[in-house]
Amino acid sequence: MPKHQTLIEKIERKIDRKKDDTAFLPREFMTLGGEDQVLRALRTLVDKGRLVRLGYGVYGRAVPSRLTGRPVLMSPDGFVGVAREALDKLGVKWEPTEAERAYNEGRSTQIPVNPVVRVKGRFSRHLRYGNTELVLEK
Q: Which helix (H) or strand (E) holds 75?
């Protein structure tokens, strides 16, 4: 007799299939179940350490830290890369700041350290990972 998968297992499998994605929104999983069920399953995955909550309706892929065992964000581009991917998925128009463009074009040697993006239009959510928050310029 085949074993039926739980919603959590279905969401985990869908996350595993999306190898290149590091940011996830609950609406990506709404075809698997109802809204309350999906949100409850995502909360369970955060508790398990498979996801990290970055803000309202935004989650990032996580792996256990080799040092502490606590979940850490898994992204080659760090928090900034995950935040920018989340903005893309939310349909928010954004562009790099002037300081980042100057560094990338070789006009400056100052390396931008803080995660900052220039948002075109309206966006009022806060995206945060640990003590780092995405700063939005208008």
A: none
Question: Whats the size of the chain, residue-wise?
Answer: 138
Residue environment code for 63-76, b if the CB has 16+ CB neighbours within 10 A, otherwise e:
eeeeeeeebbbebe
Would you call 89 helix, strand, or coil by DSSP? helix
pLDDT at 121: 84
79 close to 73: Cβ distance less than 8 angstroms:
yes
Buried b (16+ CB within 10 A) or exposed e, 103-124: beeeeeeeebeebbbbbeeebe
Please provide residue 98's backbone torsions phi and psi, each rounded to the nearest 5 degrees.
Answer: -60, -40
Predicted confidence band of residue 70 (pLDDT cuts 50, 70, 90): very high
* pLDDT one-digit tens code per residue, 18-54: 988 999 999 999 999 999 999 999 999 999 999 999 9
Select from 87, 76, 90, 79 the least CA-distant residue to 137: 87
Q: Which of 77, 34, 24 is nearest to 55 (CA)?
A: 24
Instruction: State both tokens at 40.
Output: 């409850």
